[in-house]
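User: For my dataset I need records formatted as: sequence, then structure tokens, nothing else. Please produce one.
Assistant:
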Amino acid sequence: MDGQPDSYIGRHDLGDGDGSLVEHIENFHAYYENNEQWDRQVLQSGGEEALKADREQRVLLLNEFVPYLKLHCNLSEMERIAGEALQSGESLTPTETAYHTAIQA
């Protein structure tokens, strides 16, 4: 993100019907965003600073990281579709060819 490597640590069981990894990250953090029981637990184990850090991290994940991942998923899908259109052998207009080529670029 922003040209810097980052990582996300969490458990996601493939095939459990919980959606994609991005959906899992979003749903997980949305669940804990306004969870008073979780806030009390973080407060008891780490104090006010830990609670503040937890909330800030969750805001970053929900408002920046998840939209960033969704953007890249959408761009990848657009690139895939453009590649298929260019390789399909169908007769494309010059405008369509230029469009699909631009999307791939």
